[in-house]
Amino acid sequence: MEEVLEGQKELHRQSETVVVQNHGSDAETKEMRLAAAVAAQERDAAQDRAALLEAEISTLSAAHDAELAKAESSVSGLEAENRVLSDKLARFESALQSNADLQYKVEDVTAAYNTGEYIT
């Protein structure tokens, strides 16, 4: 009888151990589920941040493209203005040369007139 009692006590201890282990298992499962939920939230937050960064990159890219187009337009305008000014400068230099040529002729004629070499 004592052996039976000892056997029952041993079975009771083993069942308590199993219950404690099951509770430990449940606690571990709950902890794992909680960790998985936290990881899922972190993943979702990271995806949201990535989407915001992509939107910001897209906005910055569009702004850059607009600024680049504006700069290219300004460069084209400046190049056209430069061509116009170059043409004006060339005409002015030509007129200046013509004026210098005429000045030399006037000086030659004046010198000839003053020396009596000028014939009308």
Describe the fold and architecture.
By secondary structure, the chain is an all-alpha fold. The chain has one domain. The protein is built from one helix and no strands. It has one helix at 2-115. The longest helix has 114 residues, at 2-115. It starts with a helix and ends in a 5-residue tail after the last helix. The mean pLDDT is 85.
Number of domains: 1
Tell me what portion of residues adopts beta-strand conformation: under 5%
Q: What is the helix content? A: over 70%
| Radius of gyration of CA atoms, rounded to a whole number | 50 Å
Total number of helices: 1
Question: How many strands in all?
Answer: 0
Largest sheet: none
Residue runs with pLDDT of under 50 for 5 or more positions: none
The chain-level mean pLDDT equals 85
What structural category arises from helix and sheet content?
Answer: mainly alpha
